[in-house]
Write a structure and sequence with these properties.
Elements lengths: L1 E2 L2 H4 L6 H7 L4 H18 L14 H15 L4 H10 L1 E4 L9 E4 L8 E4 L5 H19 L7 H22 L1 H29 L12 H15 L2 H9 L4 H8 L2
Parallel strand pairs: 1-3, 2-4
Antiparallel strand pairs: 3-4
Protein backbone atom coordinates (compact mmCIF):
# COMPACT_ATOMS: atom_id res chain seq x y z
CA UNK A 1 0.00 0.00 0.00
CA UNK A 2 1.16 3.56 -0.65
CA UNK A 3 -0.22 6.80 0.73
CA UNK A 4 0.76 10.00 -1.06
CA UNK A 5 0.61 13.47 0.44
CA UNK A 6 -2.74 15.21 0.85
CA UNK A 7 -2.35 17.45 -2.20
CA UNK A 8 -1.90 14.37 -4.37
CA UNK A 9 -4.67 12.44 -2.66
CA UNK A 10 -7.19 15.14 -3.52
CA UNK A 11 -6.57 14.32 -7.18
CA UNK A 12 -7.45 10.63 -6.83
CA UNK A 13 -10.85 9.20 -7.57
CA UNK A 14 -13.95 9.37 -5.39
CA UNK A 15 -16.13 6.96 -7.35
CA UNK A 16 -15.89 4.28 -10.00
CA UNK A 17 -16.41 6.59 -12.96
CA UNK A 18 -13.66 8.95 -11.84
CA UNK A 19 -11.34 6.00 -11.14
CA UNK A 20 -11.90 4.67 -14.67
CA UNK A 21 -11.29 8.13 -16.17
CA UNK A 22 -8.14 8.64 -14.12
CA UNK A 23 -6.64 5.49 -15.62
CA UNK A 24 -7.99 5.86 -19.14
CA UNK A 25 -10.15 2.79 -18.65
CA UNK A 26 -13.60 2.09 -20.04
CA UNK A 27 -15.98 -0.37 -18.47
CA UNK A 28 -15.56 -2.90 -21.34
CA UNK A 29 -11.77 -2.65 -21.18
CA UNK A 30 -11.84 -3.11 -17.43
CA UNK A 31 -14.08 -6.15 -17.80
CA UNK A 32 -11.65 -7.62 -20.35
CA UNK A 33 -8.78 -7.13 -17.93
CA UNK A 34 -10.75 -8.82 -15.15
CA UNK A 35 -11.45 -11.79 -17.42
CA UNK A 36 -7.70 -12.05 -18.02
CA UNK A 37 -7.13 -11.84 -14.26
CA UNK A 38 -9.57 -14.69 -13.69
CA UNK A 39 -8.09 -16.84 -16.45
CA UNK A 40 -4.56 -16.21 -15.21
CA UNK A 41 -5.53 -17.04 -11.64
CA UNK A 42 -7.06 -20.35 -12.71
CA UNK A 43 -3.89 -21.25 -14.61
CA UNK A 44 -1.39 -20.27 -11.91
CA UNK A 45 -3.02 -20.55 -8.51
CA UNK A 46 -2.21 -23.52 -6.34
CA UNK A 47 -2.96 -23.92 -2.67
CA UNK A 48 0.03 -24.70 -0.49
CA UNK A 49 0.86 -24.32 3.18
CA UNK A 50 2.98 -21.32 4.05
CA UNK A 51 6.63 -22.30 4.32
CA UNK A 52 8.77 -20.98 7.12
CA UNK A 53 11.67 -18.77 6.12
CA UNK A 54 14.83 -20.93 6.16
CA UNK A 55 17.20 -19.62 8.79
CA UNK A 56 17.11 -16.28 10.62
CA UNK A 57 15.60 -13.23 8.93
CA UNK A 58 16.08 -9.78 10.42
CA UNK A 59 14.72 -6.44 9.12
CA UNK A 60 18.07 -5.17 7.86
CA UNK A 61 18.69 -8.40 6.00
CA UNK A 62 15.22 -8.23 4.43
CA UNK A 63 15.82 -4.67 3.25
CA UNK A 64 19.23 -5.60 1.87
CA UNK A 65 17.67 -8.50 -0.02
CA UNK A 66 15.01 -6.22 -1.54
CA UNK A 67 17.77 -3.82 -2.62
CA UNK A 68 19.82 -6.63 -4.15
CA UNK A 69 16.79 -7.86 -6.09
CA UNK A 70 16.11 -4.45 -7.65
CA UNK A 71 19.79 -3.94 -8.50
CA UNK A 72 19.80 -7.37 -10.14
CA UNK A 73 16.69 -6.59 -12.21
CA UNK A 74 17.62 -2.98 -13.07
CA UNK A 75 21.44 -3.07 -13.25
CA UNK A 76 21.57 0.08 -15.39
CA UNK A 77 19.68 2.03 -12.70
CA UNK A 78 21.99 1.32 -9.79
CA UNK A 79 22.52 4.99 -8.93
CA UNK A 80 18.80 5.74 -8.69
CA UNK A 81 18.09 2.55 -6.76
CA UNK A 82 20.91 3.13 -4.28
CA UNK A 83 19.84 6.75 -3.78
CA UNK A 84 16.26 5.67 -3.09
CA UNK A 85 17.41 2.98 -0.69
CA UNK A 86 19.69 5.31 1.25
CA UNK A 87 17.15 8.16 1.39
CA UNK A 88 14.06 6.13 2.27
CA UNK A 89 13.15 6.28 5.96
CA UNK A 90 12.56 2.74 7.21
CA UNK A 91 10.41 2.64 10.34
CA UNK A 92 9.53 -0.63 11.98
CA UNK A 93 6.01 -0.16 13.30
CA UNK A 94 4.86 -3.48 14.69
CA UNK A 95 1.43 -3.03 16.18
CA UNK A 96 1.06 0.49 14.81
CA UNK A 97 -2.50 0.89 13.55
CA UNK A 98 -1.20 3.03 10.68
CA UNK A 99 0.70 0.07 9.33
CA UNK A 100 -0.86 -3.32 10.13
CA UNK A 101 1.46 -4.81 7.53
CA UNK A 102 3.29 -2.07 5.62
CA UNK A 103 2.67 1.40 4.27
CA UNK A 104 4.65 3.96 2.29
CA UNK A 105 4.21 7.70 2.76
CA UNK A 106 5.50 9.28 -0.41
CA UNK A 107 7.20 12.29 1.19
CA UNK A 108 8.43 11.99 4.74
CA UNK A 109 9.10 15.73 4.86
CA UNK A 110 12.52 15.86 3.23
CA UNK A 111 11.63 14.72 -0.28
CA UNK A 112 12.19 11.04 0.49
CA UNK A 113 9.54 8.42 1.29
CA UNK A 114 8.93 6.86 4.68
CA UNK A 115 8.10 3.16 4.86
CA UNK A 116 6.31 1.89 7.95
CA UNK A 117 6.52 -1.87 8.19
CA UNK A 118 5.61 -4.67 10.53
CA UNK A 119 8.08 -7.53 10.82
CA UNK A 120 7.64 -11.03 12.17
CA UNK A 121 10.65 -12.69 10.57
CA UNK A 122 8.61 -14.64 8.01
CA UNK A 123 8.47 -14.73 4.25
CA UNK A 124 5.46 -12.39 4.20
CA UNK A 125 7.57 -9.71 5.89
CA UNK A 126 10.24 -10.08 3.21
CA UNK A 127 7.66 -9.82 0.43
CA UNK A 128 6.03 -6.76 2.01
CA UNK A 129 9.38 -4.97 2.25
CA UNK A 130 10.11 -5.69 -1.42
CA UNK A 131 6.68 -4.31 -2.31
CA UNK A 132 7.12 -1.12 -0.29
CA UNK A 133 10.68 -0.50 -1.45
CA UNK A 134 9.42 -0.58 -5.03
CA UNK A 135 6.82 2.05 -4.06
CA UNK A 136 9.55 4.22 -2.58
CA UNK A 137 11.75 3.74 -5.65
CA UNK A 138 8.90 4.69 -7.97
CA UNK A 139 8.35 7.93 -6.07
CA UNK A 140 12.05 8.84 -6.28
CA UNK A 141 12.47 7.75 -9.91
CA UNK A 142 9.45 9.81 -11.02
CA UNK A 143 10.56 12.91 -9.16
CA UNK A 144 7.44 12.74 -7.01
CA UNK A 145 5.00 13.46 -9.83
CA UNK A 146 1.42 12.30 -9.35
CA UNK A 147 1.08 8.70 -10.47
CA UNK A 148 -2.31 6.96 -10.75
CA UNK A 149 -2.69 4.18 -8.19
CA UNK A 150 -2.84 1.25 -10.63
CA UNK A 151 0.54 2.29 -12.02
CA UNK A 152 1.95 2.66 -8.51
CA UNK A 153 0.84 -0.85 -7.67
CA UNK A 154 2.23 -2.24 -10.92
CA UNK A 155 5.64 -0.93 -9.85
CA UNK A 156 5.22 -2.44 -6.38
CA UNK A 157 4.31 -5.83 -7.82
CA UNK A 158 7.33 -5.61 -10.12
CA UNK A 159 9.33 -5.28 -6.91
CA UNK A 160 7.84 -8.54 -5.66
CA UNK A 161 8.51 -10.27 -8.98
CA UNK A 162 12.10 -9.04 -8.96
CA UNK A 163 12.53 -10.48 -5.48
CA UNK A 164 11.22 -13.87 -6.61
CA UNK A 165 13.54 -13.86 -9.62
CA UNK A 166 16.50 -12.97 -7.42
CA UNK A 167 15.73 -15.63 -4.82
CA UNK A 168 15.14 -18.31 -7.44
CA UNK A 169 18.65 -17.66 -8.73
CA UNK A 170 20.53 -17.23 -5.45
CA UNK A 171 18.59 -19.14 -2.79
CA UNK A 172 16.10 -21.78 -3.79
CA UNK A 173 14.97 -22.46 -0.23
CA UNK A 174 14.17 -18.78 0.30
CA UNK A 175 12.43 -18.70 -3.08
CA UNK A 176 10.21 -21.61 -2.03
CA UNK A 177 9.09 -19.74 1.07
CA UNK A 178 8.50 -16.47 -0.77
CA UNK A 179 6.62 -17.95 -3.71
CA UNK A 180 4.13 -19.60 -1.36
CA UNK A 181 3.38 -16.18 0.10
CA UNK A 182 2.98 -14.84 -3.43
CA UNK A 183 0.48 -17.60 -4.23
CA UNK A 184 -1.49 -16.91 -1.07
CA UNK A 185 -1.65 -13.22 -1.94
CA UNK A 186 -2.70 -14.13 -5.47
CA UNK A 187 -5.91 -15.56 -4.14
CA UNK A 188 -6.74 -12.31 -2.33
CA UNK A 189 -5.82 -10.03 -5.22
CA UNK A 190 -7.25 -12.09 -8.06
CA UNK A 191 -10.38 -13.42 -6.36
CA UNK A 192 -11.57 -11.22 -3.52
CA UNK A 193 -10.45 -7.85 -4.89
CA UNK A 194 -11.26 -8.71 -8.48
CA UNK A 195 -14.76 -9.78 -7.41
CA UNK A 196 -15.24 -6.47 -5.59
CA UNK A 197 -14.24 -4.49 -8.69
CA UNK A 198 -16.42 -6.64 -10.93
CA UNK A 199 -19.40 -5.96 -8.70
CA UNK A 200 -18.67 -2.23 -8.61
CA UNK A 201 -18.65 -2.02 -12.41
CA UNK A 202 -22.44 -2.31 -12.27
CA UNK A 203 -22.59 0.90 -10.21
CA UNK A 204 -20.85 3.87 -11.92
CA UNK A 205 -21.21 5.97 -8.77
CA UNK A 206 -19.84 3.28 -6.45
CA UNK A 207 -17.56 4.78 -3.80
CA UNK A 208 -13.88 4.44 -4.65
CA UNK A 209 -12.08 1.53 -3.00
CA UNK A 210 -8.28 1.32 -3.19
CA UNK A 211 -8.51 -2.45 -3.48
CA UNK A 212 -9.81 -2.04 -7.05
CA UNK A 213 -6.26 -1.20 -8.13
CA UNK A 214 -4.72 -4.50 -7.12
CA UNK A 215 -6.07 -7.17 -9.51
CA UNK A 216 -5.36 -5.13 -12.65
CA UNK A 217 -1.96 -4.06 -11.36
CA UNK A 218 -1.08 -7.64 -10.44
CA UNK A 219 -1.89 -8.87 -13.94
CA UNK A 220 -0.10 -6.06 -15.77
CA UNK A 221 3.00 -6.23 -13.57
CA UNK A 222 3.40 -9.92 -14.29
CA UNK A 223 2.85 -9.43 -18.02
CA UNK A 224 5.17 -6.41 -18.16
CA UNK A 225 8.00 -8.25 -16.47
CA UNK A 226 7.49 -11.26 -18.73
CA UNK A 227 7.17 -9.42 -22.04
CA UNK A 228 9.01 -6.10 -21.72
CA UNK A 229 12.66 -5.26 -21.21
CA UNK A 230 13.80 -3.86 -17.84
CA UNK A 231 14.32 -0.49 -19.53
CA UNK A 232 10.71 -0.47 -20.73
CA UNK A 233 9.48 -1.44 -17.26
CA UNK A 234 11.62 1.35 -15.78
CA UNK A 235 9.61 3.87 -17.80
CA UNK A 236 6.71 3.05 -15.48
CA UNK A 237 8.82 3.93 -12.47
CA UNK A 238 9.83 7.21 -14.08
CA UNK A 239 6.26 8.05 -15.05
CA UNK A 240 7.09 8.04 -18.76
CA UNK A 241 4.56 5.34 -19.66
CA UNK A 242 0.87 5.64 -18.83
CA UNK A 243 -1.52 2.79 -18.29
CA UNK A 244 -3.05 3.04 -21.75
CA UNK A 245 0.37 2.79 -23.40
CA UNK A 246 1.31 -0.18 -21.24
CA UNK A 247 -1.94 -2.03 -21.95
CA UNK A 248 -1.51 -1.43 -25.68
CA UNK A 249 2.07 -2.69 -25.57
CA UNK A 250 0.87 -5.84 -23.79
CA UNK A 251 -2.07 -6.41 -26.13
CA UNK A 252 -4.91 -5.50 -23.77
Amino acid sequence: MIVVDENFDRKTSNNLGEWLDLHGLSEPRCCALLRAVEDDAMDNLSFSPTANWPGPLDPNGAWQRALAAMLDYFPERADSISRAYTGTHKVRAAGDIRAPRAMTVADGGDGFPTVYFSFDGGAASQMAIAHEFAHALQFIASGGIFTPPVTREICAFVGEAALLQYLETFSHSEYTAAVLVWRRDEYVYCHHYAAALKLALHEPMAKYNYEWNYPIARLLAREAKKNLSPDEVWWLFEGKEDLDGLMTALGY
